[in-house]
Design goal:
Layout (H helix, E strand, L loop, with lengths): L10 E5 L2 H4 L22 H5 L22 H15 L3 E5 L2 H4 L10 H16 L3 E7 L5 H7 L6 H17 L5 E5 L9 H5 L10 H25 L4 E7 L3 E3 L4 H24 L6 H7 L11 H9 L5 E4 L4 E3 L8 E2 L6 E2 L5 E2 L5 E2 L1 H15 L3 E5 L17 H20 L3 E4 L22 E3 L11 E3 L1 H11 L7
Parallel strand pairs: 1-2, 1-14, 2-3, 3-4, 4-5, 5-7, 6-8, 7-13, 13-14
Antiparallel strand pairs: 9-10, 11-12, 15-16
Family: Belongs to the glycosyl hydrolase 1 family.
Keywords: Glycosidase, Hydrolase
InterPro entries: GH (IPR017853), GH_1_N_CS (IPR033132), Glyco_hydro_1 (IPR001360), Glyco_hydro_1_AS (IPR018120)
């Protein structure tokens, strides 16, 4: 296997999200965001899906996002380490509630803007291209309590003001943007991206599709704003992608797999990339008990979608999924907000996510065949129980092996003819897990001394994978041994 085909200028780097690493949840005028009211632990999702969940902080519970890894006070140290690895880019997000604490103010919080100015300048100091996600699971709590989350069309104007503010502030320094993180994850967990859960309407699928429409409109408004500021700006969508296999050749499973792909992998990208709703929209909605006439949309909004599609497709890939509708007794596995039937040909991570590097090659081919737009793998990685030795060194050969296999898959997909912009493994520095709120589920090249309760020295230590990834970047993907 040769991996010397990565194009010049390939964007090697890493990815994080503000709510999972910044901490300082009340510093600098920041308001409460959704993750600030999500308790930590493996029962996180069960708690927030309780009928009486009210988006308030329970003093009896632990909230790891309040502390994160205190990147707010350590960002210079962290970015210096990214620079030492040779990052060409760094994907991070801007916390909406740092810029607009309630989410609906008319004027931004200058302290928040100043903070991200400093983060961006620190990246540029090391020749690292910032790649910014405008909204990454960080909806201000006020927008949920006051308006009901993204099912309310009033949020379009709030997002437009937020996007215009940050694009205007940073566009001269930042070329690459994404509008919403894993927008399609709402198919299974609308709480994270839409601010919807059982207590405020998530069980009514009409609300989820209305929220998506509102986000599609908001995304196109951001593309319009960005391109008017500078036509060279690259503004992408970002989807969660799990290559999906039928368990067998049974036509029922084949049909179910096609429909699963439409519902989970393609629907949101079809709208944001192609600029219009796909032909299967009516049948997809019908399968979820929703009629097109149930949704509030206008001809002007549809025109906006058509005029301002995204420039590229960013996506996360951690695992593949298997569909079987013919046997209810199949073993099942966990996954990135969604699981599936166990694939007997694959091994699993410490958290039960099935490891499938070939699935990434398939994903790249499927997406490029469908859209013929540049692809950016902005999340991929192995969450594991790292065990440091007495010198705080983690010999994470398992992570190196995982990433090596996925880089080989990217190289193979490039040979297949796909256009890949870059690769930013998730959690390049250990951070709080989105799905469980744990620190013990670690992804990074850099170990952070902190436990699940937020206690520790917060010292940073290089893992074995740090030097390995530095070599990968320096060789532009040729040296991955």
């Amino acid at each position: 296997m040769t991996t010397n085909n990565f194009p010049k200028g390939f964007l090697w780097g890493g990815a994080t999200a503000a709510n999972q690493l910044e901490g300082a949840y009340q510093a600098g005028g920041k308001g409460l965001s959704l993750p600030d009211v999500l308790p930590g632990g493996k029962d996180r999702m069960a708690i927030i899906n309780e009928p009486d969940f009210d988006f308030t902080i329970d003093p009896q519970r632990v909230y790891p996002n309040h502390v994160g890894i205190d990147h707010y006070h350590h960002f210079k140290e962290d970015i210096k380490l990214f620079g030492e690895m040779g990052f060409k880019c760094y994907r991070f997000s801007i916390a909406w509630s740092r810029i607009f604490p309630q989410g609906d103010e008319e004027t931004p919080n200058e302290a928040g803007l100043k903070f991200y100015d400093a983060v961006i300048d620190e990246c540029l100091k090391y020749q690292i291209e910032p790649v910014i996600t405008i909204s990454h699971y960080e909806l201000p709590v006020h927008l949920i309590k006051e308006y009901g989350g993204w099912k309310n069309k009033k949020l379009i104007a709030c997002y437009e003001r937020f996007a215009r503010t940050v694009l205007d502030q940073y566009h001269a320094k930042v070329k690459y943007w994404m509008t919403f993180n894993e927008i399609n994850s709402a198919a299974h967990f609308p709480i994270m991206s839409q601010g919807l859960t059982v207590s405020n309407g998530a069980k009514d699928k009409k609300n989820i599709y209305q929220a998506w429409h509102n986000q599609f409109v908001a995304s196109s408004k951001a593309v319009k704003i960005g391109h008017e500021l500078d036509p060279k700006l690259q503004i992408g969508c970002m989807i969660l992608y799990a290559t999906t296999y039928s368990f067998d050749a049974n036509p029922k499973n084949q049909l179910a797999t096609l429909q699963d792909n439409q519902a989970n992998n393609f629907f949101c990208a079809d709208v944001q990339v192609r600029g219009h709703y796909p032909a299967y929209t009516k049948s997809l909605l019908a399968r979820n008990g929703v009629k097109l006439s149930d949704l509030d949309y206008t001809a002007d909004e549809l025109d906006l979608l058509a005029q301002y599609p995204v420039d590229y497709i960013g996506f996360s890939y951690y695992m593949s999924s298997v569909v079987d509708v013919t046997n209810e007794d199949q073993d099942r596995v966990a996954g990135n907000l969604m699981g599936g039937v166990k694939n007997p040909f694959l091994e699993s991570s410490d958290w039960g996510w099935q490891i499938d590097p070939t699935g990434l090659r398939i994903a790249l081919n499927e997406l490029y065949d469908r859209y013929e737009k540049p692809l950016f793998i902005v999340e991929n990685g192995l969450g594991a129980l790292d065990q440091p030795d007495e010198n705080n060194f983690v010999a994470d050969d398992y992570r190196i092996d995982y990433l090596r296999q996925h880089i080989e898959a990217i190289s193979a997909a490039i040979d297949d003819g796909t256009e890949v912009m870059g690769y930013t493994p998730w959690g390049c520095i250990d951070l709080v897990s989105a799905s469980t709120g744990e620190m013990s589920k670690r992804y990074g090249f850099i170990y952070v001394d902190e436990d699940d309760a937020g206690h520790g020295t917060f010292n940073r230590y290089k893992k074995k994978s740090f030097a390995w990834y530095k070599q990968v970047i320096a060789s532009n993907g040729e040296e991955i041994g």
